[in-house]
Design brief:
CATH class of the largest domain in chain B: Alpha Beta
Radius of gyration of chain B: 27 Å
Largest sheet of chain A: 2 strands, antiparallel
Number of strands of chain A: 6
Oligomer: heterotrimer
CATH class of chain A: Alpha Beta
CATH architecture of chain A: 2-Layer Sandwich
Radius of gyration of chain A: 16 Å
CATH architecture of the largest domain in chain B: 3-Layer(aba) Sandwich
CATH topology of the largest domain in chain B: Rossmann fold
Number of helices of chain A: 7
Strand order of the largest sheet of chain A: 1-6
Strand content of chain B: 15-25%
Helix content of chain A: 25-40%
Chains: A alpha+beta, B alpha/beta, C mainly alpha
Number of domains of chain A: 1
Helix content of chain B: 25-40%
Chain lengths: 198, 992, 335
């Protein structure tokens, strides 16, 4: 089975936010929930880089480790998913997540955060694949349809890659060799304890 | 590239699955919209929307028996032309998939394109026709609306003349819509018809067309993959044309191309440059001439190219001598070494392409800016080949097409100028007597010392520009060169906040007797000012709710299929124009060639039949080969086109065609011309997409030598420069019947063609040319001999018919460098297109008043990736609105600190005219240099600190409102096209 | 509060140094944004010297927390939460239970040597008892629901299954959130009412030196509260304050100023609460089965004179002077 990963090639990312709205379009994510976002480092300085970030579906995911109710699970594709039926909205996954991925419908209201929501790698949730219940709780399940996350599929410059970790690493590697520069596989070290050697 | 998991047991699509479990009855689209309108509503409510609620409503609305179909249309935002692939079930747009097969976007979108589905689910759209009665919006029916509007138009026409009704069209129209609207203006009897090209690339069109023939991007987005040097000036493609960056960055990576970006801001595009050069706003000519100085000094110019294909470069050489490195650094702020390196790279690392946008065009010297760049391209021989050229990124989804079809004050469709011959040409195509049109135009009385104009003369006089519509309403009648002031605006798909001097626009709005806003969303025209009556709001479907073709920036024409019927009570552009023509009494002659089909509310012309009429008349621009059938075939076989060359694959149904048949696509559709991917490309045969520079400025030009004697320089190509396989191995003029006869090629015309030519030519059959021969015979024969129908001429480095034939640096009207104004002053006061253009007076007054001291910050403006144009549509899209919730001003940390301004705090930006001010948030960033501020231009709905949300009809207010930058922008108009000076003015910023 | 502010400053300081490390000098000759591009390795290098470094950028959405691109510090918190915290909790809670059991087995129930006197003294009035029990009841539920967060998935989840465990945890979470408020109120009231009797003095030194008389016969003299009780009082006040402050931030994350601070408050909350639980187990023991007559003080509020004399001899003297002794029913003169 493939080990699914995201890779944002920051030397291609132009902060166009297509990934953000594609995600919202595909999963009907409400206002205020940002499953994916684009952050610009060193904004306005020569050398600024924008990076699209969402749940990285970590190896040995911290969110899963700290969850007091064990609502996380990892799919055969190594996608880290969770059950909104089991989530109690405690916020611990947010403390632990290195990427700020977990989102809550009502942050700050006296502990009533609501059920955590995050990027599912367009792989739905524990419900029956492609069922309306799954869609309502988690959004679409493109993986089950043989498609990849829409954020990556619609990326304007093919900066955001999604798919089998080895293959996207290979694509990135080839790009860096071809063009002679690369600012790194952002988040890989933290998420997967590995990086892409060029 | 992307790897997919194949799950054997999962074959069904998401929606079928969603449907399977549902037994609830079929809900029609309208019911769905009502329901989704209930769940979605405003920022406050948006927070409460539960995940999936909208899709849930959809799922309930889908009966088990219906399937989904895929419909392809084109994104309605920028000009890149991304294919949008919609999944439609039961008349509801339920999903969007990447259109991998499109060679232009290859599945990609930007934030706008990835959220277009929301546009058609818009609960903030105008839901039904409305009119303003004593300050209250009242719902009315379509019939009442059309009747009342038509009556009022006729009343104004009787009292003040046809020119008093301004017809403001849209770059959002399909080609067919744009053409129909232009035709409507002709039947109404005015040249006061304009659209967004005025404020984005009118100066480009004027400058480029006056250099080498056609006012369009010479190459394509895809072709930039071939470039080895990519130079940007005043273009922030990363935000304005994000998907183009896919090709640009690919070129940068594959060829290790140099990417040189000139901009006052370190934009998201500049962040990907290999060489970023910060310039002072409004000094583009000095920058270009500064580069040319190095090029000429070091002999880096392309001598062979200049000798064969360019006229008048010596005149430029003379001007450029003034721009030595020291002078240029003083004007522009660019150090010599930087400019020299850029010049050398551009001249030597070829092919090199130059990309520009509104940073170049929106200036009081816009046309001259463009001409300077064209000269740089000519001098270095970087036009007419793969990977080079003037890659002008246009702004709206069909601004190229709308320009092509003459939504313009000085053209008839396809750049036929406002001359008798052109009117007669279109009268023939339309099958309406020429004299009919003469009767429709106003006679203009003598006033202000100007002679009177007959109706025919008025018909041949360029109209009034949209940048200054309010001046035509506000100025004393004698200064306005038409029968009477402006009394009515009929605005179809145009924002009200995209041109400077909004305080003056407010006054103008109050003067109008009639204001019609026909749009999917209420634009700023509606919210601005204090109108109480005489305002109509008509709901129009977006282009996703309409079929038709659209021309992207690279001239490729793409056919978009209606995805869903116009929602709510919205109607299509075609319907509204038809209905109004009917009311005004010219629907029959105007629509006689069109097939009327049953639309949502009754008969309306079919897009296909309109395109066929275009094909019948668009000879001058090569809009004749793009039949609806061919375009639809291209959309069907998008995957058969090469990514870089855009050529259709061998053996496919679109073999040899260039994608979208980029114009010129000569001859009739049956001729199967492939379109022209790269303009003026002599390395291809004319019948295979090749071309030459167009000789449209005469055949020779007199030049006085040093000794006083005169010689005639040829304006035709020399030194064996001709397109591949041309039988004429030299320059040649445009093809006419007379030329054919001389060459003895007239015998190749068919009998039928000769018959038509005779009919067109009447007494003077020899004068019938390639552009008005409706039979297409002349084009066919020329192409058969490998010749380009318009001739083989030289590009002009010196455009002697323009105000500044050889561009010269002129300080902006509101210049921060008052010390330079004396040496580089604005042009003397003059009249531009029906009204005065007071360059010098305003500039002088600014200097005398010490404006540069009290308003020390240079203000420039531009785009955000999330929004587009006036922004009402995108600011009403909750997915986009969430990403940019506040109007802001970018200010340098040094300027912010000096003013006690914190990042994110509110500030007042004040402008030097009308005591204007705008309350916006500060974005403290080094993107802008010290003494420079930047504001995006998409906001509206706040006016000088006042929230105008209440002015919108209930439920149609965009989610995000904000001050418009154009409240504080100022006077300044290009002498050729009256383009406004939106990219450089002065302001002051203070903490609020 | 101060500690939080301190940590906050610390974090900001580190971010600043980090930002400086990232600044790229622009050459006057050529600005090449591609060559100068910020690399992730720069951040990873900073991270080696400062595990709490965060990678901050700019986002257009108003939620500025989204501007943090990477924050690997969560790893440390995770390690604490899944490791250290478990150990501290297990050692302190189970350890205390063990000690108490052992103590009970060895020492048995501490009896009032003089036997009941019959006459009683009012040790705690109704209001005092109300506030004690309010605080105590809240504390017990808070403690159990809190421990559920740490131990629940190890102990309860396998027993009752995921859905039931989630239901229980939701109830526990809400109880925790709501009962925190009466608990805080109780702590404040106890502080105000009892502070005057809990000022440490020289007697406490002697009392402590004598080990409170637990291991010997006869108790050192004490006023209303002996040193042991003062320890409980101050632990409840200070520990309660720590729990209140940290809990407040966890409930209202907007005021905490970033996830690193939330992690910090979570650590404070966790450690203080398990220590409190351990202490309270001792308190409960000595106030119930551990000592004869002690429960009456909070039960009926009336304590036997002899019990009082044994444990709070000086307080009894003061009370007798004030004539506060209630003669027992058996001592009433038969007239």
């Amino acid at each position: 089975m493939a080990r699914m990963k995201f890779l944002c090639d920051a030397d291609r990312c132009i902060e166009c936010n297509a990934c953000v709205t594609a995600c919202k379009n595909e999963n009907d994510v409400p206002w205020g929930i940002n499953r994916r976002r684009v952050v610009t480092i060193n904004d306005g300085k020569p050398g600024e880089r924008s990076i699209s970030m969402a749940c990285m579906h970590c190896t040995d995911a911290p969110c899963a480790a700290v969850c007091p109710v064990d609502c996380f699970y990892t799919t055969a594709d190594a996608v880290v998913l969770h059950s909104k039926d089991l989530c109690i909205g405690c916020g611990y996954c947010f403390y632990a997540c290195p990427f700020g991925a977990p989102q809550y419908p009502k942050v700050g209201n006296f502990g009533s955060r609501g059920k955590m929501d995050k990027c599912t790698f367009c792989a739905g949730g524990p419900e029956v694949d492609l069922s309306p219940a799954e869609f309502q709780k988690y959004g679409s399940n493109r993986l089950a349809e043989g498609k990849l996350p829409l954020c990556a599929e619609m990326c304007s410059t093919k900066s955001l890659l999604a798919g089998d970790g080895e293959i996207i690493a290979q694509i990135y590697k080839e790009r860096v060799v071809k063009r002679g520069y690369g600012s790194g596989a952002w988040g890989w070290q933290t998420a997967y304890k590995e990086t892409i050697a060029i | 590239m992307l790897i997919k998991r194949k799950t054997a047991d999962v074959q069904r699509g998401r929606l079928q699955a969603a449907m399977a479990g549902l037994s609830s009855g079929v809900m029609d689209r309208r019911a769905f919209l009502r329901r989704s309108g209930l769940v979605a509503g405003g920022i406050a409510a948006a927070g409460a929307i539960q995940i999936g609620s909208v899709r849930k409503a959809e799922a309930q609305g889908i009966g088990p028996a219906t399937g989904t179909k895929i419909v392809k249309n084109i994104c309605t935002h920028c000009s890149v032309g991304c294919t949008v692939k919609a999944e439609v079930a039961n008349g509801v747009w339920v999903g969007q998939e990447p259109a991998w097969e499109s060679p232009i976007n290859r599945g990609s979108h930007c934030a706008k394109g990835a959220s277009v589905r929301e546009v058609v689910h818009g609960d903030r759209r105008i839901k039904y026709p409305m009119k303003l009665v004593d300050g209250q919006w009242q719902r009315i029916s379509w019939d009442v609306a059309i009747n009342e509007i038509g009556d009022k138009m006729n009343e104004i026409r009787a009292k003040s003349g046809a020119d008093s009704v301004y017809l403001l069209g849209s770059a959002k129209f399909s080609n067919e819509g744009a053409y129909l609207f232009r035709k409507f203006a002709a039947f109404w009897g005015t040249n006061n018809v304009d659209h967004q090209a005025r404020i984005c690339h009118s100066t480009t069109v004027a400058g480029v067309a006056n250099t080498w023939g056609y006012g369009a991007m010479t190459n394509s987005y895809n072709d930039i993959r071939n470039a080895k040097t990519i130079m940007f000036m005043g273009s922030n493609a990363a935000e304005a044309h994000p998907v183009s960056m896919q090709h640009i960055l690919a070129g940068k990576e594959i060829n290790r191309a140099n990417v040189i970006v000139f901009d006052p801001r370190l934009t998201r595009t500049a962040a990907h440059a290999t060489d970023y050069i910060r310039i002072r706003s409004g000094t583009d000519i000095a920058v270009i001439w500064g580069m040319m100085w190095h090029i000429f000094k070091n002999g880096w110019e392309d001598q062979a190219f200049l000798a064969a294909r360019v006229h008048g470069m010596d005149d430029v050489r003379k001007e450029v001598e003034k721009y030595d490195p020291k002078t240029v650094e003083d004007i522009t702020g660019v150090p010599e070494a930087q400019l020299k390196r850029a010049a050398e790279t551009f001249a030597k690392v070829k092919p090199a392409t130059f990309i520009w946008c509104m940073g170049v065009t929106q200036h009081s010297v816009g046309t001259a800016n463009v001409r300077a760049i064209c000269n740089l391209l000519l001098a270095t021989g970087n036009v007419g080949g793969m990977g080079n050229g003037a890659n002008i990124f246009r702004g709206h989804c069909n601004v190229q097409g709308a320009t092509d079809f003459g939504l313009d004050i000085s053209n008839l469709p396809c750049y036929y100028g406002l001359v008798e011959g052109a009117w007669r040409h279109w009268a023939r195509v339309w099958d309406v007597p020429y004299d009919y049109f003469v009767t429709r135009f106003d006679q203009v009385p003598a006033k202000g010392g100007r002679p009177a104009r007959t109706a025919k003369a008025n018909m041949e006089t360029s109209g009034h520009t949209s940048t200054r519509w309010f001046d035509a309403a506000n100025l004393p009648a004698e200064q306005v060169d038409q029968k009477d002031n402006l009394k009515a605006m009929f605005v179809m798909g145009h924002g009200g906040n995209t041109i400077p001097r909004m305080p003056d626009a407010v006054k103008g709005l109050e003067k109008l007797e009639l204001l019609v806003v026909a749009d999917p969303h209420p634009t700023n025209f509606v919210s601005l000012g204090g109108r109480k009556n005489g305002t109509y709001l008509l709901p129009i479907g977006t282009q996703f709710e309409c079929s038709g073709s659209r021309t992207c920036s690279n001239r490729s024409v793409q056919w978009g299929e209606k995805i869903v019927e116009p929602i709510f009570e919205a109607a299509s552009d075609y319907f509204v124009i038809y209905k109004l023509a009917q009311k005004l009494g010219f629907a029959e002659p105007m629509h006689k060639n069109f097939e009327l089909i049953q639309g949502k509310y009754g008969p309306e012309p079919s897009a296909e039949s309109i395109l066929r009429e275009i094909n019948k008349g668009g000879w001058s621009t090569g809009y004749t080969g793009q039949s609806p059938e061919r375009l639809k075939l291209h959309m069907q076989h998008q995957d058969k086109f090469d990514l870089v060359s855009l050529r259709g694959a061998v053996g496919s149904p679109v073999e040899n065609d260039f994608y979208g048949l980029p114009w010129p696509c000569w001859g009739t559709p049956e001729l199967k011309h492939p379109g022209t991917h790269i303009l003026y490309n002599t390395s291809l045969a004319a019948n295979n997409g090749g071309g030459t520079f167009r000789p449209r400025f005469g055949l020779t030009r007199e030049r006085t030598l040093a000794d006083g004697s005169k010689v005639n320089d040829t304006l035709l190509a020399e030194n064996g420069s001709y397109s591949l396989n041309s039988e004429i191995k030299d320059g040649y003029p445009e093809f006419t019947m007379g030329v054919l006869k001389k060459l003895g090629w007239d015998a190749e015309l068919t009998l039928k063609e000769v018959e038509t030519i005779t009919w067109v030519g009447g007494a003077n059959i020899d004068a019938v040319n390639w552009a008005n021969d409706i039979s297409g015979g002349i084009q066919r024969v020329a192409l058969a001999h490998g010749c380009v129908p318009y001739g083989n001429g030289k590009a002009r480095a010196n455009a002697w018919n323009l105000p500044d034939p050889v561009p010269t640096h002129r300080e902006p009207i509101y210049s921060p460098r008052v010390d330079l104004v004396a040496k580089w002053p604005a042009r003397p006061d003059e009249r531009t297109l029906r009204i005065p253009n007071l360059h010098t007076s305003v500039q002088k007054a600014a200097v005398e008043k010490g404006i540069a001291k009290s308003f020390p910050i240079v203000l420039t403006s531009g785009r955000l990736v999330e929004y587009e144009g006036g922004g009402e549509e995108t600011r009403s899209n909750r997915w986009l609105a969430e990403l940019q919730q506040d109007m802001f001003v970018e200010i340098n940390p040094a300027d912010a600190t000096a003013r006690g301004i914190r990042d994110g705090s509110f500030v007042w930006v004040s402008g030097p005219e009308n005591n204007s001010k705008a309350r916006v948030k500060a974005l403290v960033t080094e993107r802008v240099g010290r003494g420079v501020a930047f504001m995006p231009f998409h906001f509206g709905g706040f006016y000088q600190g006042q929230d105008q949300r209440g002015n919108y009809p209930k439920g149609t207010d965009p989610i995000v409102l904000g001050e418009s930058v154009n409240i504080v922008t100022t006077y300044g108009y290009d002498p050729v096209t009256a383009m406004h000076e939106g990219k450089v003015t002065l302001c002051q910023i203070a903490a609020a | 509060m101060r500690l939080g502010a301190h940590i906050g400053l610390l974090v900001t300081g580190l971010l600043l140094t980090f930002a400086v490390a990232f600044a790229v000098p622009a050459s006057a000759q050529q600005v090449n944004p591609t060559a100068d591009a910020v690399r992730e390795q720069q951040f990873l290098d900073v991270l080696k010297g400062n595990r709490e470094a965060e990678l901050q950028g700019r986002v257009s959405i108003p939620d500025q927390r989204a501007a943090t691109l990477e924050r690997p510090a969560g790893r440390d918190w995770r390690q604490f939460h899944q490791g250290t915290m478990l150990w501290i909790a297990a050692v302190s809670v189970l350890g205390m239970l063990l000690i108490l059991t052992a103590f009970y087995l060895i020492r048995g129930r501490i009896r009032t040597e003089a036997g009941p006197a019959g006459s009683t003294l009012t040790r705690f009035n109704a209001f005092e008892r109300f506030m004690h029990w309010l605080t105590a009841a809240c504390f017990i539920i808070l403690a159990l629901s809190g421990l559920n967060v740490t131990f629940g998935k190890l102990v309860l989840l396998p027993l009752i299954g995921p859905q039931a465990f989630t239901n229980l945890s939701v109830v526990a979470k809400w109880s925790h959130n709501f009962l925190a408020w009466p608990f805080m109120l109780g702590v404040v009231m106890m502080f105000v009412v009892w502070i005057k009797d809990n000022i440490p003095n020289a007697l406490d030194v002697r009392w402590l030196a004598a080990g409170g008389g637990i291991f010997t016969k006869g108790h050192p003299p004490a006023r209303r509260f002996n040193a042991g009780q003062k320890v409980v009082f101050w632990s409840v006040v200070l520990g309660g304050a720590a729990l209140s402050v940290s809990g407040f931030y966890l409930l209202f994350p907007f005021y905490a100023g970033g996830v690193l601070n939330l992690q910090f408050w979570n650590v404070v909350h966790g450690i203080v609460s398990v220590l409190m639980v351990a202490l309270m187990l001792g308190h409960i023991y000595i106030g119930s089965i551990g000592m004869e007559g002690a429960f009456d003080a909070m039960g009926s509020g009336e304590v036997d004179l002899n019990w009082a004399k044994a444990h709070h001899s000086l307080w009894v003297e003061e009370e007798i002077e004030k004539g506060q002794v209630n003669p027992g029913p058996r001592l009433q003169p038969a007239e």
